[in-house]
Specification:
Length: 469
């Protein structure tokens, strides 16, 4: 049995994400019969719906019926429609961009330029992929580059772990930083009624620490392997690869040309326009979606795609994000059940009492670790946002924490452990392509994950102290 089959067998033992969410919907329905109903008073302040602290009171129960439990699913889809279509259409736009070959060609050009510059290869490659992770939420999309990364790493005396890490951990660093990630930070901030991509300065500073630690970690390991190949965590794999001469040809990716350069210019200019629109023209999801569609179509035209191919790519792009897009509506069904059963405020009140018992600055840390645990079961960032933010936002209000901090707790809780949990589709994809056993990867990466947890925990404490908005 090959490594990919082993990884698939491991994953098959883990409940499907949708199954987990459906189980939660059932539990929420059952809870409506036993958990006391209650509610807070809410007021509108500066366009935000705020919970009034100390206003919680028990009310008459309203259990959710069996049929109403299933009605909650289409109702959840309806309530999450704006976010769902945002994810679909942005995914479609990126599908067109991917079809032009610009991303593959650009990264291939950069990596090959650095092929014989060992000291620059790892940090620069990780930096490039981190930018993609921070702005487009790149994760599974970077799997295609793993064989190339491994081939180049082996060519200069490193191993498969190094080649995989500089691709996957680079993208992960940017994903955690999430300065302009539309699929995690964008979704969470819209649910928290915050300006999109607000708090970008604080996120950028934390991103620098996250990326710097990852680069140091990978470079230190790579140097150790280059000095003594037997120190490689996958030494047996390296011997086998050397015997079989299994190296991916870097020439399999497209060559960067003038069309790619123009498409890249459109992407950079479009992202810059989006940032300007968000902060100067108060653009929100609808405007950003329209902008991304324009960017995608313009990239397709400049990239030389025929009209049918462009829309095929648009549909393919939407297919790739269908899992994450529809899970938003499915997860919103949990909220519908909790609201209809009148028990969501009871849960918020109980969580507030539990987390509120922690010292002031540690409230956010408590929220963070709730998100870390949730991420194991719901590794989809947009799905986790839809599941947890409706609870975490009013909880932040009750605890006197800025909503931006609640988004940060979600963002870091969702991102940090994606590089180690077996429920992460991207991680298992990386390992399957690289042929790296999961237990060997855990042995390599666990100290970095611990370091990231420390950095993000400190970042949240600082965020509370300075009141990041």
């Amino acid at each position: 049995m090959n490594e990919q089959s082993v990884n698939e067998e491991k994953r098959s033992k883990i409940p499907h994400t949708y199954a987990i969410i459906f189980i939660i919907i059932i539990l929420a329905t059952v809870a409506s019969y036993f958990v006391p109903a209650g509610q807070f008073d809410r007021v509108e302040v500066d366009g935000k719906t705020l919970v009034v602290a100390g206003s919680y009171e028990t009310i008459e129960s309203n259990p959710v019926s069996f049929f109403d439990m299933f009605k909650a699913i289409p109702q959840g889809m309806s309530k999450g429609a704006t976010i769902i279509f945002y994810i679909f259409l942005v995914g479609g736009a990126f599908g067109i961009i991917r079809e032009t070959g610009t991303i593959e060609a650009g990264i291939n050009k950069v990596v090959r330029k650095l092929e014989r510059r060992e000291k620059l290869l790892i940090p620069f490659t990780m930096f490039v992929f981190s930018i993609a992770g921070a702005t487009t939420g790149m994760s599974e999309e970077s799997i295609i580059f793993v064989p190339i990364g491994i081939a180049i790493a082996r060519a200069i005396g490193y191993d498969a772990i190094t080649g995989t890490a500089m691709i996957s951990l680079g993208a992960a660093s940017g994903f955690i930083g999430g300065m302009m990630n539309p699929f995690t930070v964008g979704v969470a901030q819209s649910m928290a009624e915050l300006q999109l991509f607000s708090g970008i300065g604080f996120r950028f500073v934390v991103y620098i620490f996250i990326l710097a630690l990852a680069i140091f970690y990978v470079m230190r390991y790579a140097a150790k392997v280059k000095k003594d190949p037997t120190k490689s965590i996958v030494y047996e794999l390296e011997l086998k690869a050397k015997q079989q001469k299994e190296q991916q040809d870097p020439n399999t990716l497209p060559v960067f040309n003038i069309r790619h350069a123009l498409v890249l210019l459109i992407i950079v200019g479009g992202l810059g326009l989006n940032m300007y629109g968000v902060f100067k023209w108060e653009w929100y999801l609808t405007e950003l979606t329209a902008s991304f569609i324009i960017i995608g179509f313009a990239a397709g035209i400049i990239g030389g795609l025929r009209i049918n191919k462009m829309f095929d790519s648009f549909v393919d792009g939407m297919k790739l994000v269908a899992f994450g897009a529809l899970i938003v509506g499915f997860a919103r069904a949990i909220l519908v059940v909790l609201e209809n059963g009148l028990i969501i405020d009871t849960m918020i009140n109980s969580l507030a009492a539990l987390i509120g018992s922690l010292p002031g600055t540690l409230n956010a840390v408590g929220m963070f670790f709730v998100q870390v645990v949730t991420n194991f079961f719901i590794p989809s960032g947009s799905g986790q946002a839809a599941t947890t933010m409706p609870i975490m936002v009013p909880l932040a209000d009750l605890l006197g924490i800025e909503r931006q901090v609640a988004v940060l707790a979600f963002q870091y809780g969702d991102g940090v452990t994606n590089s180690i949990i077996p429920t992460s589709a991207a991680l298992m994809g990386y390992l399957a392509v690289a042929g790296i056993p999961y237990d060997r990867w855990v042995k390599f990466v666990w100290k970095l994950i611990a370091g990231w947890l420390v950095i993000t925990t400190i970042a949240l404490i600082v965020a509370v102290m300075i009141g990041v908005k």
